[in-house]
Amino acid sequence: MNSPLLSLIVFTPWLGAALLGVLRGAKPSVSRGVSLLFSLSTLALSLIAIVNFDRARTAPQFVEDHAWMSAVLNVHYHLGLDGLSLVLVLLTGIVTPAALLASWRIERSPRLFGALFLGLQGAALGVFLALDFFHWFLFWELSLIPAFFLIKLWGGRGATRAAYQFVIYTIGGSAFMLLGFAALYAATGTLDFAALADEAARGDLAQKLAALGGWWPKAIFLGVLLGLAVKVPLWPFHTWLPPAYAEAPTGASMFLTGVMSKMGVYGFLRILWPIFPAQLHAAAPALLWLALGGVVFGAFAAMRQTDLKRMIAYSSVNHLSYCLLALFAVAAATGRTGPDHHAANVAALSGTILQIFNHGISAAALFFCVGVLQERATKNTSGTPASLNDFGGVRTAAPIFAGLCGIAMFSSLGLPGLNGFVGEFLIFRGVFGLAPWAAGVACLGLLATAIFLLTFWQRVFHGPRRGFAAGEFRDLRGIEFAPLVPLVVVMFVLGLAPQLLVGLFNPLVSAWAGHLP
Amino acid sequence: MSLLPWTIYLSFAGALLALLAGRHSAAAARWVALLAAVASSAVALLAASNFVPTAGLQTLVDVPWISDLGLGIRYHLSVDGISLTLILLTGIAATAGILFSWNIEERAGEFFALFLTLIGGVYGVFLSADVFVFFVFYEIAIVPKYFLIANWGSTNREYGAMKLVLYSFFGSALVLAGLLWAFAAGGAHSFALNDLAQAAAHFSRPQQIAMFALVFLGFGILAGLFPFHTWAPTGHVAAPTAASMLLAGVVMKLGAYGCLRVAMPLFPIGLAFWQPAIAWLAIIGIVYAGLVALVQEDFKFVIGYSSVSHMGFVLLGLAACNVQAASGAVLQMFSHGVIAGLLFAVVGRMVYDRTHTRKLADLRALPLHRLIPFAALVFVLAGMASMGMPGFSGFPAELTILVGTWKTSPLWAIFAAVGVLIAAAFTLRAIQVSFFGTTDKSGPTPPVASHAAHFSPITWAERAGAMLLVAATVYVGLKPDVLLSWISPALESPLMQTVMKGGTP
Amino acid sequence: MNADYLALLHALLPEASLVLGALIVLGFDLIAGHRLDPAERTRAATVIGLIAIVAAVYHSIHAGIGGGVFGDVIALDSLGRATRVGVLGLTALTLLLLPGVLTLRHPAEYVAIVLFAATGFTLMAVAQQLLLAFLALELASLSLYVLVGFDKTRPDAAEAALKYFLFGGMSAAFLLFGFSLLYGLTGSIQFGEISRQLAMQPLNPLLVVALVMILAAFGFKAAAAPFHLWAPDAYQGAPASSAALVASASKLAGFTLFVRLLWHGVGPIAGSVATREGAPGWLPVLAVISLLSLLLGNFAALAQTNVRRLLAYSAIAHAGALMLGVMAAGKAGPAPLFYYASTYGLATVGAFGVIAVVERASGCQSIADLAGLHRRSPLLASCLFIFILSLAGIPPLAGFFSKFSVFVAALQLGGANSLAGGLTLLAILLSAVALYYYLAVLKQALVVAPTNARRIAVPASAGCALVIAAALLVLFGLWPSLILQLVR
């Protein structure tokens, strides 16, 4: 039972980072190889985990639980893996190597780049596996530092400002989340998610917090909410995101959108909802509007962009808001009973988790494609941003690239047969059952998404060759296939057989929906 | 255990020997000083290894010293978890400080003699159980600061030194006034903390309020209590690296320690009266100093103000008056001691001694992360620790302070959280402007030879000092239990219990 | 009157040795002086003087503690014995500063007058009768006037001596007037008898006049404000060793005499400073003098650029603190006061000793003349470090405990809510102000680069005196009981 599999998953990338740290003067190719190798460890280990994973159980598996601190602070080193975590670990396992492959051409200190990337990967995995706030927060915060340097050192012109803004926003949210947990600890004496959730389920937590009187219980909830909302980001806390994603180097953008933004959604599911069910229920109607805001404004803002990276970044705001929309709809509907609701709950929650995974895959792929365009345009990966108006007729110049990019785009759009469809469909299915008006408004977002993605497709790939595509425009070559092809394969596989993934978390989601009072 | 007083004696002996060795050569003085610092740290570690935290205040030495005039002064040293924590900090800071002073050539003997005298005084304060002895060591630690800064300092050093020493001495005069008043008016027959506390219990409320104000304010000045903190930034900036490290790292802790060990237990009624005022001043200090740090143009001023901000957390933790908050405060003392030392070491030694500028605008133009990557790495680590990143010692400290403060007043805790955010902002700004000001993004690493010519490589002493401090902050960050399991039992001693009940007996 | 001349002779053996020593110094110089060069003459005179002092110390200790002698004219008590040893020790230290440092035309006369002054001091230490007290005081004062103006080559020395003399003469007149009134009101010149008489009569205007006269004279002797005007000039103009004597031994003897007179003599009309309002008597007047001295001394010292004037103002400030010790002596006994006065004397002698040595090499009036002392003579710099920090009251030096003990004693009178208590708190806070000007001296000596890099040779005897003084300051600071137990 106490196999250190999960620790191995978390710390192997860090081991790699440390190894790169001591490999002074290693050749760039060696550095790249080592980075890739260690980043692949996650995929390998998560496959082992999938094989040994008991799909019927909803409780965390492969649990590691050791006493860590007992004086003044009561902290356990507590790792566990359930269906939700597994999906995210798998996602990390896929996106990270892809992002590293996408960064293969980076000439500037590949050793440091690799080390930072592996550091980031380990931190993200830690967030997905930790079950005690202390080290969950450790991973959560530590992920910022490598991300900061990846953006700042390898990013575009505005990278300094973007990186600073990104970290400060996130830490700002985190500071209040930290305060919220300090308050929880003051009331309960534990930082363990499961223990807190138990207390919440029994109603003890609400009582203990009510003892504070006044606004304080709400303030605690808001503190934790704020920390997570900034990270996702929930509209209107999203303003750090477009510049950060746009200025980051391609590989980092892929990881940021593919994995890091999921940390926030994961936090909503793992922390906020179980620990503050009542408060979330009370706040859900308002939050629903915010999520809708993200859906609609994210899409419309994307429509207005000419900078391709920013466009994809706003589309991320839009896509992630679907996840939150579903979750808030479920929370808002708590208390209503009936088989319809149960089904709707299950659909909404399954959709959320699927959407987390799918968006990770497709957005990463899209960022890579934009990165390729950008590189072709400026001969480097981090120069002037690639604009919508700089290209035309790329399809004739580079048909393979256009094909793969098109698939990614349609996956993002939610075309049936590709992975994006299932998630969005389930979300809409659930939200219609729970809050039909919200689903209605969200359709606006769907529409806008279709418009801007098709505009992108049409302007860049169709028509006569112009702009940077007018002259020599290489198609994908060699290593450039490496990141894109696996992602596209995953899109097809999950589009055709979503149950491969759904099977991992279905019992968990059913249990959640069943427990809803 | 009973070896601990040797930390004091070894330091003073080391001071004398370094002075003598300095007449011979600077290198001899250095080695003597390092040996003395390492030896006292070793003594401290040895004592720590068989320390029993639950045994309360453990007497090390207790002999009559001055029994005339009915003063009943005893040379009484004792140790508990709080003092042991700070003793270890002192050992670490002293050793690192000497390593970072390795390049001092001019009057090295005197430098290290003063340095070790200061250290000896600090050890003495942390071990004293008799208020008179406490005060004697406290003042011994004041004077060397002046000469360290005025002789070996930089920017505006004589002004900074004088300001710092006068503030400290004025503070200690307030402390002396309050303590003598308490002694004389209470009819106590000794200066033992317990006896004074018993005598003080009979004072009227107004008397306690006044005495507490004198003593706490006196110590608070040294701890950087707003608005009496202004000595700290100017002093830190003027001081030579090792002295800044000690000032921020250890000497400010003397003030906080005095508040906790002397002022608060002696006058619980006074504490109850002043508690909100102290907390708000601490909060103002946290936020105000943080905001000021955000707009500084001198690298060292950023760190100087950050120290004030971080010490605000210590004072807030103390003002919250419960075991968690106070444990956090003591842990924060340790943590800040190590981290501030590290930051000052990078800024003052690694950067300034090579670039001869501390203006952020000038540093921005240098590709420092390429020229001295080790310094950049250390500064990033130190900055993360200073921001309160988990994994470093600042995090458990701030978390426990937040938990404890929340119990006393959620409102205070909210402002403290704002302080955490501001700390992140100014630290991150310092990191990116100073070390990563110019990041040329195109192509492979451009040559840096034109600058590198002026840059001596990082020496072994710098590496060793930095690693020592980084190791300390990471170790405590991952295993805060090591210290917390000493600290919290010490806060449950009979004398502290009234304090931890919010001062109302 | 019980006239036991043998006992009197025994009690006065120290004074006898000093006078005899003075005569031998003069005689030796008369006979052998012209055959020696000036340096040797100085050395010889100093050696003889030191021998006389050693003999006097021996006799002081052996005089024992036997209470009143010769009808209570002389008090052989622990305070008297300790003061005698103290003033003799301080005088010996100032004598050690002579050889190789001061070049005087008449060294033998100088030494002889120092010994006469010392005779006055030792008598002051034991006198408990108005007449003897006055005689002792005048013997000491007259000698000091001469010593201050001894260096006839310098006009400012003459000015200083004249100023000192005029003020001193006036204060002597006041004192005599006060004494005569006291005698007239009580019919006795014995302290004990005066005290008994005063206990039976209320405070009347004549008594007040007498008190004011006495306190004014005391204020002059102690260089307390507002009777301090002579001090800065005298300190500035006098030869360094004379200034040292004026600042150290003379003060110690003066405080012993006055604490005896005030508490044993006019104790019944002390009044009170132990409450917020106080009670009329000499204590409140003393408190006012103390307050003025503390404020004026400390703040005026801040503005000084001349190191000797700085020491003079610091002496005024210390006089204010010593007054606190006098006030507290009624309850706590004279031990804190004695400790303070004697260790203060040590530190001042040391400081003037350093100035004397520096002066001989390159002149030393301005503080800036000390610049770079650490380069020019590490020994002098380290000694100065100790003396100045002791004056500033930094532990573990004796200056710290002296302040500490006096402050505790003063606070024990009536807590902080009394006149004495308030004054004490003020004194404590002013010590932070004092640190500023003390550090200004040390800054020149230890921080600033030398303007004149020539090394200073320290004559052996002066070096000896400085090291002894510094060592004693550390020793007494670490073990105050060594001194406190002398005075019970």
Task: List descriptors.
heterotrimer, B: 505 residues, 75% helix, C: 488 residues, mainly alpha, two-stranded antiparallel ribbon, 74% helix, globular
Helices and strands in order:
The complex is a heterotrimer of chains A (517), B (505) and C (488).
Chain A: H1 5-22, H2 28-52, E1 61-69, E2 75-81, H3 83-102, H4 110-129, H5 133-142, H6 144-154, H7 159-188, H8 193-202, H9 204-210, H10 216-231, H11 241-247, H12 250-275, H13 277-304, H14 308-332, H15 339-378, E3 391-392, H16 394-397, H17 399-413, H18 419-434, H19 436-461, E4 466-467, H20 481-496, H21 499-515
Antiparallel strand pairs in A: 1-2, 3-4
Helix pairs in contact in A: 1-2, 1-4, 2-3, 2-4, 3-4, 3-12, 3-15, 3-20, 3-21, 4-5, 4-6, 4-12, 6-7, 7-10, 7-11, 8-12, 10-12, 11-12, 11-14, 12-14, 12-15, 13-14, 13-19, 14-15, 14-18, 14-19, 15-17, 15-18, 15-20, 15-21, 17-19, 17-20, 18-19, 18-20
Chain B: H1 5-24, H2 26-49, E1 58-66, E2 73-79, H3 81-99, H4 108-127, H5 131-140, H6 143-152, H7 157-186, H8 193-200, H9 205-222, H10 231-238, H11 241-266, H12 268-294, H13 299-320, H14 323-355, H15 360-364, H16 368-371, H17 373-387, H18 394-408, H19 410-434, H20 449-452, H21 460-478, H22 481-490, H23 494-500
Antiparallel strand pairs in B: 1-2
Helix pairs in contact in B: 1-2, 1-4, 2-3, 2-4, 3-4, 3-11, 3-14, 3-21, 3-22, 4-5, 4-6, 4-11, 5-7, 6-7, 7-9, 7-10, 9-11, 9-12, 10-11, 10-13, 11-13, 11-14, 11-23, 12-13, 12-19, 13-14, 13-18, 13-19, 14-17, 14-18, 14-21, 14-22, 17-19, 17-21, 18-19
Chain C: H1 5-11, H2 13-32, H3 38-62, E1 67-69, E2 74-76, H4 78-96, H5 107-126, H6 130-148, H7 155-186, H8 191-198, H9 205-222, H10 230-237, H11 240-247, H12 249-265, H13 282-302, H14 307-332, H15 335-362, H16 373-376, H17 378-392, H18 398-414, H19 419-446, H20 460-478, H21 481-484
Antiparallel strand pairs in C: 1-2
Helix pairs in contact in C: 2-3, 2-5, 3-4, 3-5, 4-5, 4-11, 4-12, 4-15, 5-6, 5-12, 6-7, 6-12, 7-8, 7-9, 7-10, 8-12, 9-13, 10-11, 10-14, 11-15, 12-14, 12-15, 13-14, 13-19, 14-15, 14-18, 14-19, 15-17, 15-18, 15-20, 17-19, 17-20, 18-19, 18-20
